[in-house]
Write a structure and sequence with these properties.
The protein is of the alpha+beta class. It is about 40% helix and about 15% strand. The longest helix has 26 residues. It is elongated and about 90 Å long.
Length: about 230
Amino acid sequence: MTPDPDPPARNSAHHATVPLTKETEEPREPTALGPPEHDAPLPNLTAGERGRGHRTHRPWSARRLPAALVASVILVAAAAALFDVVAVRAGHPAAAWRRHLADELATRPLDDVWVLTGAAVAATLGIWLIVLSLTPGLRHWLPLRSPAPGLRASLDRDGAADLLRDAAIRVPGVSRARVRVRRHRIKARADIRFRDPQQVKDDLTTVLAEERDQLVLARPPRIVVRVRRRTH
């Protein structure tokens, strides 16, 4: 993919970062012998073709930190138990922590506060791990429509908010604008110095909708605009 020449400059604090990933495909046998061909660049999508783009899903997080924590806890517990079992098989007495743990589990009733607390902690951790395994994560990234199957792209929310805010500032009458981008909604608040507030709100909604469509989001959020007049 080659960028369009001379992109328009944006006065934003953050840049819209779009990571691209290409899915691997099975190697294909050549149908005919000939000189090697150059890879054709991806075509630019027009306004009518964007609606027919391939829909992509939000990328899944690798969950490296939760996986490392769970693996570390299991490794330490398994290593301690295995070491103590080997020591007992070799003729040494069992470790004091294992004897104490066995006595506590055998003598404490089920309604004991420590038993209930341990069960609640274990259940909470289990539910947390289940939620992590069933949800994609990376909520800060918005999936984009893909121009070709196997090509995935995502847009950072802060970058999208900066682009929309710059577009809102260019609306006549708007002196200040704040834009927050969420998965299902774009919230824009604007301060106006002149013009009728309703006209500014209509123009601002139209401009933000056009800018949102240019982002080619897979699931375009709904736009909510609020304006207020500033006299000082």
